[in-house]
UniProtKB/TrEMBL annotation:
EC number of the protein: 3.5.1.2
Any one GO MF annotation of this record: glutaminase activity
Pfam family of the protein (one): SNO
Annotated region described as Disordered, given as residue ranges: 231-250
Annotated positions binding L-glutamine: G46, E47, S48, R108, I142, R143
One BP annotation, GO: pyridoxine metabolic process
CC terms in the record's Gene Ontology section: cytosol; glutaminase complex
Keyword presence, Lyase: yes
PANTHER family reported for this sequence: PYRIDOXAL 5'-PHOSPHATE SYNTHASE SUBUNIT SNO, PYRIDOXAL 5'-PHOSPHATE SYNTHASE SUBUNIT SNO1-RELATED
Family assignment from sequence similarity: Belongs to the glutaminase PdxT/SNO family.
Annotated protein name in UniProt: glutaminase
Source organism: Dioscorea zingiberensis
Active-site residues annotated for this sequence: C78 (nucleophile), H202 (charge relay system), E204 (charge relay system)
Reaction catalyzed: L-glutamine + H2O = L-glutamate + NH4(+)
Lineage, uppermost ranks: Eukaryota, Viridiplantae, Streptophyta, Embryophyta, Tracheophyta
Amino acid sequence: MAVGVLALQGSFNEHMAALRRIGVKGVEVRRPEQLESIDSLIIPGGESTTMAKLANYHNLFPALREFVNSGKPVWGTCAGLIFLADKAVGVKAGGQELVGGLNCTVHRNYFGSQLQSFETELSVPKLAEKEGGPDVCRAVFIRAPAILEVGADVEVLADYPVSSDNLPSMATRGEDKEDNIGPLDKVIVAVRQGNLLGTAFHPELTADTRWHSLFLRMGEEIGERRLQCITTNSDDHPKGKGTPDLPIFE
């Protein structure tokens, strides 16, 4: 399996290092044609506006959307999560182009400025169930987004409680009135929807490689399902003796 890491800006080197720790070689991706030679893609954290400008400059958005729609695994961390969201609020004036595909609404800078970055022990029983290890993981939130709502087809893997004690003020977060965000007692910070994985934090900055292992396992599961589908389809129409080689149109 060839794992690509979008290497326009942000923590792509850290993802490459995390992949090496579990014996996988990553491929840095900067051009649309490079997406044709990889089986899965990580969109790293960074500055989402800058990443979007660079992606536009290299004409990557059409190829990224095609990759997402192909069913191949894609994982977005922090800024990468914003890229994958169908809708983003709290964005800069003029909006921001998104890849889309993940049925959720993301607040671009929910946890505040760089000064409000933090680390925490995050409860992740679903990750532990799939990958073993403890029911918590060390989560690094750097000027982080948060998922405000998800569709019915999205599996929530982790959430984080919010209160006036651990959340910046509305003014600090720079929220717009049109965002129409009501009071929340928790926000979602990790999700999966089919071939898409999203985390608001940075697993690549910790020694815990279970999120990367989970992502690789997603690729194996999708590959197995495709193989099963191909096998089932071929069995449905067995070729008898004397069947012509040319296709038969019904």
